[in-house]
Design a protein that fits this description.
Number of strands: 2
Number of domains: 1
Strand order of the largest sheet: 1-2
Order of helices and strands: HHHHHHEEH
Shape: elongated
Distance between the termini: 58 Å
Number of helices: 7
Length: 210
């Protein structure tokens, strides 16, 4: 990550603020992938009913929300420095991305309102249907003319020098690594908590029967 600040090339027009591109775009892509993981986990839960997939789903949505907030923050900083505005309401990409965030914020409201097995089942179904907003957000910038959100990747390839593309790929791989690591750590924590609860229940049963 240090290389992104000190080594990665910067745009001749925007200067040093352009370096935020190496963070903003990978974070945004990872947030959408996290919601995709939640969608797949929801499908697998409905098929088999394993608690593991429910946990994967809820953790993925939580991480997706974290990366989404970081996307909005970094994007707003970049927009303000480059174009003099924090937010543009008539930009399709910004609005559809905000809709995606609100959809997944409602995921936790739904989850907290349900009980027992219905909580996991409702969460899985909602996570699947909420994912419909993700491709809408991804492709909206490609079907609308936007100065604030220019298209960097087209069918003809990446609209950037090769040196920038290399550092972008490095940053993207790093962000995916961060997501995968956080996902595994949270799942391990949940597994450990569940094991401790089971052990506590067994000890209480033994003590009650003694």
């Amino acid at each position: 990550m240090i290389g992104l600040f000190l080594v990665a090339p910067e745009d001749a027009d925007q200067g040093v603020i352009q370096r935020i591109f190496y963070f903003h775009v990978p974070i945004a892509l990872v947030s959408l992938v996290a919601f995709g993981v939640a969608c797949v986990a929801g499908i697998l839960y409905l098929r088999g009913g394993r608690e593991h997939w429910d946990e994967v789903g809820v953790v993925s949505v939580g991480l997706g929300m974290l990366f989404s907030v970081l996307t909005v923050i970094t994007g707003s900083i970049w927009a303000k420095a480059s174009w003099g505005t924090w937010w543009v309401w008539d930009d399709p990409r910004l609005v559809t991305y905000l809709v995606v965030i609100l959809l997944y914020a409602a995921y936790f409201v739904l989850r907290s309102s349900a009980e027992d097995n219905r909580r996991a089942r409702y969460s899985a179904v909602y996570g699947i249907f909420a994912f419909a907003g993700v491709p809408l957000s991804f492709y909206s910038v490609r079907v609308a003319q936007s100065f604030v959100h220019p298209v960097v990747f087209t069918r003809g390839g990446a609209d950037m020098p090769g040196s920038m593309l290399i550092w972008f790929v490095i940053s993207l791989v790093a962000m995916f690594g961060v997501f995968a690591t956080l996902l595994q750590l949270e799942l391990l924590q949940r597994r450990a908590d569940r094991a401790m609860r089971d052990l506590k229940t067994r000890l209480e049963a033994l003590m009650a029967g003694a």
